[in-house]
Amino acid sequence: MNKLIPIILGLIIFMLSIWVLLTSNKLVRQVVERLDNLAYDLQLRTRVLTGKPQIADNIAIIDIDDRSLKTEGRWPWSRVKLSELITALTNKGAVVMAFDIFFSEAEINIADKVLEELNKKELLSPALIDLLTKYKSLFDHDAILAKNFLGKSVVLAIGFLPRSQIQNLLPTPALTLSQNQQQSLNIVNAAGYISNISILQNASAQAGFINIFADSDGIIRRAPLLIQYEGKVYPSLALRAVMEFFGENIDIITEKYDEVIKLEGIKLGTLIIPTDERGQVFIPFVGRSFTFPYYSATDVLHNKLPKDALLGKILFIGTSATGLGDLHSTAVQSPFPGVEIQATLVNGILKNNFSFRPAWVTGANLFITIFLGLISAIFFPFLGPRQLGSIILLVPSILLFLNNWIWIETKLILSFLIPVISVLCIAILNIIYGYLFETRKRERLKEMFGQYVPATHIDEMLKSTSDFALQGEDREMSVLFADIRNFTSISENLSATALVEMLNTFFTPMTEIIFKHQGTIDKYVGDLIMAFWGAPLKDLQHTSHAISAALEMCEQVKVLASVLEKHEWPPIRIGIGINSGRMSVGDMGSQFRRNYTVLGDEVNLASRVESLTKFYGVNIIITQNTAKDQVDFIFRKLDKVRVKGKKTGIEIYEVICGVHDLTKELKKELASYHQALEYYFSQQWQLAYDILSDLHKEYPDKKIYEIYINRIQEFMNTPASPDWDGIYIHANK
């Protein structure tokens, strides 16, 4: 029951995470998108900035940089100079030349300008008009540039607009959508455009748009490869450049989801370019800005480049010059030249290294969230704070590593952010709950039981669903009494300080052994230890745990011999008595002093059998109640006795050793002894006497043989009464 509350709270967090993934709430979607973008940026920068750039050999950028403007003059340059640039690039072996520049306005013909100015000042003459008109074509720089375009793979830039504005003419589209495709597909739709003047557009090989849309936070992460306008689809500048490079057309790849057609990619020859449903791709950044080969336009014009620097390449002509406005904030760096974004897109197409997030990713993210969320909600309440702390540290790292591995191996972008946040929230919730409630419970249990049980017991009690309290109850338990033999004579020869020190030396390891075997300390009385098994935690193996503890305590006494000798203290021997049965356990005493203890006849019996260890000359005596069904230990049946205060007899046993420690010699001895005992209880005195005499001669230090020899001799001299039942009565405690 105590775990039900954190499980319910964990399930609530789990359901909230599912709602966050599925809700259409605009604010929530914006927050999730922002967090997803931050996670994407972190992974992208880690990959890009720590890895080696993978750049295709046939891409370069012709940069109209600050040095070019300083050398060649201010921008815009005359189209004659651009024509010279085209000629120089062609001579260098360029295959495709893509302009990341608009030519949306015609360049003024200087002859027309002179005619206009002279006319204003009334300085024109018929001869001058004829002369300027005759040579006007020499100053038509647009025509000169257009002529230079002919026969070359020149791709111009166009820009689509979200408003109904049209300037110049559009080139031939790459595709025309059917009516059904127009209605179903979600390709970015433009309302207007800005193109190039017709003389240049018609002379060029083709054109591609340069639109790139930033996310809501102003950062560029994606770029559209397709935009539709009035049912016709146009490629981006980068895609069109590659189409020209390969001489291939494109087609779209679609898939049906619940009867809805969605775009999944673009086919270019044998290349498949994965896109989202809007025709966008994640820009496959390979490094910071200026990662690609940059060549200054002025160096091209003045033939300062190496001979084969541009041979066979796709060239993008653009600008990184200060103040020309083609710098953007991207996921890897800000600012980042727009022309290099186009080059990056081409590199992605050629290298086929586009990351993608298809339409079914939402379902995959939902499944991951459900799987991890349910596991966390159900199992985290059963973990401790250290384990939960490890989860908080490890799970995000593992999931991010897994996400990154999937990204590297498959190019698939999953979003583990919501699952990670869900797991972290549930883990933190359980830590807080554990601190507020479990810690309070631990403190209460320590206050109640700390002086009786080991710390491991407290931990087990915390894991248990039982309600532990100090009220009395009856249970099946085992109780142990351990007493130092001849303590009175020992204490007479020691000072009070030495006696206390010796008892502490004795009690400390004995207590550790009892705790080790899951026992509970009842009390210390002088030289006596009282302990029990089966409370406050129930213990189905309380008998075996008590016996194991007793055996180890006797072994520990042997270990202590050297310590006692070192301090010049008398040697110690102990007697241990154990009984099992139903006992009353609880916090008992007065309002002034209380003790968590056990009471009952079975407890008294354990005390009585402990006192018999000295009589029988053995270390450990247990009753038949404790010996029952114990197959892991070797016992010697000592006697049938009736102790003081009891009306019925009970069998008592000496604990010899564990079953694995039984030697052949000891096995033979016990077999002979138990055979003699059978003769004894069947009153075959002579047979019993003969065996016991032999055993006594072989093992003269074992008092039990002498005891039975003396009894048999008495029975031989004075026969037993007809109703003799074999029970030996101990009148003294």
What can you tell me about this protein's structure?
The protein is an alpha/beta fold and 733 residues long. 46% of the residues lie in helices and 20% in strands. Strands 19, 20, 21, 22, 23, 24, 25, 26 and 27 form a nine-stranded mixed beta sheet that branches. Strands 1, 2, 3, 4, 6, 7, 15 and 16 form an eight-stranded mixed beta sheet that branches. Helix 1 packs antiparallel against helix 13 (361-379) and helix 14 runs antiparallel to helix 15 (417-449). It starts with a helix and ends with a strand.
Q: In terms of per-residue confidence, which ranges show pLDDT below 50 for 5 or more consecutive residues?
A: none
Helix count equals 24
Question: Between the first and last Cα atoms, what is the distance in angstroms?
Answer: 48 Å
How would a crystallographer describe the biggest sheet?
9 strands, mixed
Number of strand elements? 27
* Mean pLDDT over the residues: 85
Class from helix and strand fractions: alpha/beta
The shape, in one word, is: rod-shaped
Q: Compute the gyration radius: what is it?
A: 48 Å
Which percent range describes the beta-strand content?
15-25%
Oligomer: single chain
What percentage of residues falls in helices of 4 or more residues?
40-55%
